[in-house]
Design goal:
- By secondary structure, the protein is α/β, with parallel strands linked by helices.
- The chain has 2 domains: 197 residues, Isopropylmalate Dehydrogenase; 132 residues, Isopropylmalate Dehydrogenase, CATH 3.40.718.
- The chain is 40% helix and 21% strand.
- Strands 2-1-3-12-11-4-5-10-8-9 form a 10-stranded mixed beta sheet, sandwiched between helices. A two-stranded antiparallel sheet has the order 6-7.
- Helix 5 crosses helix 6 and helix 10 crosses helix 11.
Length: 341
């Protein structure tokens, strides 16, 4: 069996621990992956490099696909977010966050199955900020027809391919009439032009948040600009047990980076208690992407086996502490590996 190169960025804090659990699980599942390790974030700085080294970007460009652990982002100062820089450098313009109820993880809601799609390259996260006078800061929200339209088109195509039925574009165009107005106009026009068979609605973001926490099962696919998508993806993760059981991907036309969606959790780093599920589920998303988007059919058996194994482990009570169990990181990986047969 030939192996396919994937860049692994372990990340900071708990990143190396959960990355090791994923590597062990992939090996046990006989996933045809050859890991090439590169660094970003604090780990890269401590090695004497930049926050996002050129070598890391070049490796992803060569391999086309990467799996990334959590990277630390300082609050209110310090260096720019590695995640934002990575998305911009590789033009990863869509973030995909599947939110599904998990077996053995009880929450207030059952049957949650939402796909959160987030525009990844502009909005307030363009990072254009200026102190125009002492104590006065402006942040510029950038919205373009090109980015909004290609993102909307991707969202509708994604929904069509996966048999999803309804797309909800959330916005604040009642207040930001030009910026959010452009975003929903592009979505509306793409829907009318090319995807009329899919149900489409527009919901003001604050009302949409209320409706989600009332009854998340009324939503299918959410189409969101950058900041709204960041907030809503974490809110929706709270419906299914938290960020520890939510995977994520950042996709562009040429490259794909799959990642743990939680932070680096420095307070528990080195204790061996972190939940590796987010990174492992993202790894399964990666294998499916390699199967269906890159034409590497030999990745499919491992994706199916790992998913079945972690679903069985959760359903039978093998869980880490954050979701009601008592297993440590590598013990949970062992529980999954035992079920790989």
């Amino acid at each position: 069996m030939s192996e396919h190169t994937v860049v692994l960025i372990p990340g900071d804090g708990i990143g190396p621990e959960i990355s090791e659990a994923v590597k062990r699980t992939f090996s046990a599942a006989k996933a045809p992956i050859r890991w090439v390790e590169h660094h970003a974030g604090l780990e890269a700085l401590e090695r004497g490099g930049e926050v996002l080294p050129a070598a890391t970007l070049d490796a992803i460009r060569d391999a086309k696909v990467a799996l990334k652990g959590p990277c630390t982002t300082p609050v209110g100062g310090g260096f720019r977010s590695v995640n934002v820089s990575l998305r911009k450098a590789l033009d990863l313009y869509t973030a995909v966050r599947p939110i599904r109820s998990m077996p053995g993880v009880p929450t207030r809601f059952e049957g949650v199955d939402i796909i959160v799609l987030r525009e990844n390259t502009e909005g307030l996260y363009s990072g254009i900020e200026n102190e125009i006078a002492p104590g006065v800061v402006t942040s510029l929200k950038v919205v373009t027809d090109r980015a909004s339209r290609r993102f909307a088109r991707y969202g509708f195509e994604y929904s069509r391919k996966r048999g999803r039925k309804k797309i909800t574009a959330m916005h604040k165009a009642n207040i930001m009439k030009l910026g959010d107005g452009l975003f929903i106009r592009c979505a509306r026009e793409e829907h009318e032009k090319s995807f009329p068979e899919l149900a489409y609605e527009e919901v003001i973001i604050d009302a949409g948040c209320m409706r989600i926490v009332q009854d998340p099962t009324r939503f299918d696919v959410l189409l969101l600009e950058n900041l709204y998508g960041d907030v809503l993806s974490d809110l929706c993760a709270g419906l299914i047990g938290g960020l520890g059981v939510a995977p994520g991907a950042n996709l562009g036309d040429d490259y794909a980076v799959f990642e743990a969606v939680h932070g680096s959790a420095p307070d528990i780093a080195g204790k061996g208690i972190a939940n590796p599920m987010s990174l492992l589920m993202s790894g399964v998303m990666m294998l499916n992407h390699m199967t269906f988007e890159m034409g590497l059919a030999d990745c499919k058996p491992a994706a199916e086996a790992i998913k079945a194994a972690y679903n069985a482990a959760l359903a039978e009570g093998d869980k880490t502490g954050d979701i009601g169990g008592n297993l440590k990181t590598q013990e949970f990986a062992d529980a999954i590996i035992r079920r790989l047969g």
